[in-house]
Amino acid sequence: MPKLIPTALTLTIALASHAAAAGDPAKGEKLYNRCSSCHAIIKDGEVLVKGGITGPNLYGVVGRVAGAENDYRYGSERLPVGMFTDDMIRAGDEGLIWTEENIAAYSQDPIGFIQEYLDDETARPNMSVKLKKGADDIAAYLATFSAP
Question: Which helix (H) or strand (E) segment is 84 a member of?
Answer without folding.
Answer: none
